[in-house]
């Protein structure tokens, strides 16, 4: 099944990493942290684990080095999905048909 380009554009326009990261805890005023989906690192007091910066719309793990700035890539790599499957998941989150 081919997803029309205009639908892909809508999905990309509305999707944020915070839609797919899951449980996050605030770290300071501008960052959040969570368990890294790649290496499972999670420490609140150190720079280990996944750090999400909403202003820059990026995630980075300071333990294993993995990171991305794309919700599509996040879903593909953390849930072992294909590009169309990741788009479908994000479309469902945002009720895009």
Largest sheet: 5 strands, antiparallel
The radius of gyration over CA amounts to 14 Å
Following the backbone from N to C, one meets helices and strands in this order, namely: HHEEEEEHH
Q: How would you sum up the global shape?
A: globular
- Provide the β-strand percentage band: 15-25%
User: What's the mean pLDDT score?
Assistant: 88
How many helix segments? 4
Major sheet: arrangement of strands: 1-2-3-4-5
Helix content: 25-40%
* Distance between the ends: 13 Å
Low-confidence stretches: none
Structural class: alpha+beta
Task: Please tell me about this protein's structure.
By secondary structure, the chain is of the alpha+beta class. The protein contains 4 helices and 5 strands; from the N terminus they run ααβββββαα. A 5-stranded antiparallel sheet has the order 1-2-3-4-5, with helices on one face. A hairpin with a 4-residue loop joins strand 3 (50-53) and strand 4 (58-61). Helix 3 crosses helix 4 (83-93). The longest helix is centred in the last third of the chain and has 11 residues, at 83-93. It is globular. The model has no long low-confidence stretch (mean pLDDT 88).
